[in-house]
Amino acid sequence: MAYLELKNITKKYDDLVAVDQLNFSVEKNEFAVLFGSSAAGKTTTLRCIAGLEKTENGEVWFNQNNFTDAPIQGREMAMVFQTFALYPHLTTHDNLAYPLIKKKIDKNEIAKRISETAEMLRISHALNRKPDTLSGGEQQRLAIGRALIQQPKLLLLDEPLANLDAKLRHDTRAELKRLQRDLNMTMVYATPDQLEALTMGDNITIIKDGKLIQKGTPDELYLNPKNLYVGKMIGSPEMNLINAKIVNNQIELPFGNVSTNKNKKINSDFISTDLMFGIRPNDIHISSNADNYEAKIFLKEPLGDVTILDLTIKDTKLKMILPEEDAIKYETGQNIKVNFNIDNSYLFSNETGVSAFN
Question: Domains in the chain, please, with CATH?
Answer without folding.
Answer: 4-229 (3.40.50.300), 237-349 (2.40.50.140)
